[in-house]
Amino acid sequence: MKQLRERLQCYGSETLLDEELLTLALCTGPMREDAVTAIRTLLNHYGGLGGLMCADMGELCQEHRLSAVKAAQIQAVLELAKRLSIERPDRKYQIRSVDDAANLVRLDLMHLDHEEMHILILNTKHQVVERIRRYMGTVNSSVLRASEVFRPAVVRNCPNVIVAHNHPSGDPAPSPEDIEVTKQLVAAGRLLDIDLLDHIIIGNPRYVSLKERLRW
Prior knowledge:
Largest sheet: 5 strands, mixed
CATH architecture of the largest domain: 3-Layer(aba) Sandwich
């Protein structure tokens, strides 16, 4: 195996594979010959970096025999990469399209094995003021209260909200319940003078905009 550090120095980091970059980030001492193979096996198990990002420390340590230090390093490196991918240092993240909104939440949602609902609170310029995770489990009308969705926007005096949730199956096609919940939220938002700009269903790799489907 060629020395990864030499390859990075000579040819640039963009020439290295995911498992090679992760190996360099984790192996601070002498590099074992089987290190890249072990990291490759880990990535294959989780279906790539996105899946690995959703693994918790207990799972990495118990099922894959990683030390607590290495498991923490993996989570820290991937979390930094996720934050860097959405960082806008000069201003707040501004949503101009459904792609902008989906890209902001998809890394958090697309690889989960359970449903979550995330709420984006936007100001008058459609800049994200806050991101909130509201539900884990199944998102349905029996547990979804419009007041819980819109309360943060009321508190912050923000006129716009976007909600997003994932389908663990990877298929973003809206269910009848998704459509009914969305209609309830649109109606509630109108009473509060807060616009529900969209309800996005995140699959893997696609997503669906219910605003485009329902045309409210």
